[in-house]
């Protein structure tokens, strides 16, 4: 059994027991979260929502919050001496999928 959920502007294929990294949710470690934007559920037969499946939710527990790997942003213009270097670390929340409620 798996489901396709939408959170943080992205879509994820999840099954029970999966651990995924999603955009920061602002929840503390150990806290329960519920994803109600379920786009599709497959439990033997495929249910596709328009745009979401009615009554379907995905329950999860927050494992931790953190920052991703650093991405270097380097800007350069030739002949003018212009160099600019920035770094960015995207915030994420790691969640463990507990149950898919179809």
Automatic annotation (TrEMBL):
**UniProt record similarity statement:** Belongs to the bacterial ribosomal protein bL21 family.
Lineage, broadest ranks = Bacteria, Bacillati, Bacillota, Clostridia, Lachnospirales
Subunit text: Part of the 50S ribosomal subunit. Contacts protein L20.
InterPro entries xref list: bL21-like, bL21-like_sf, Ribosomal_bL21
Query: Which gene is this protein's source?
Result: rplU
Q: What biological function has been recorded for the protein in this entry?
A: This protein binds to 23S rRNA in the presence of protein L20.
Q: What is this protein called?
A: Large ribosomal subunit protein bL21
User: By its UniProt entry, which SUPFAM superfamilies does this protein fall under?
Assistant: L21p-like
Q: Which GO terms describe its cellular component?
A: cytoplasm; ribonucleoprotein complex; ribosome
Q: Which GO terms describe its molecular function?
A: rRNA binding; structural constituent of ribosome
User: Tell me, what is an example of a GO biological process annotation in this record?
Assistant: translation
- Species per Swiss-Prot/TrEMBL record: Clostridium symbiosum (strain WAL-14163)
Residues annotated as signal peptide: none
Claim: RNA-binding is one of the keywords in the record: yes
Per UniProt, what is one Pfam family of this protein? Ribosomal_L21p
Q: Which UniProt keywords apply?
A: Ribonucleoprotein, Ribosomal protein, RNA-binding, rRNA-binding
């Amino acid at each position: 059994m798996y489901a396709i959920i939408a959170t943080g502007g992205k879509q994820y294929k999840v099954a029970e027991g999966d651990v995924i990294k999603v955009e920061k949710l602002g929840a503390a470690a150990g806290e329960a979260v519920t994803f109600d934007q379920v786009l599709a559920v497959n439990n033997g037969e495929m249910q596709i929502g328009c745009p979401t499946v009615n009554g379907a939710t995905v329950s999860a527990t927050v494992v931790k919050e953190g920052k991703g790997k650093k991405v270097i942003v380097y800007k350069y213009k030739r002949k003018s001496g212009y160099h600019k270097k920035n770094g960015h670390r995207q915030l994420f929340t790691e969640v463990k999928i507990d149950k898919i409620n179809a």
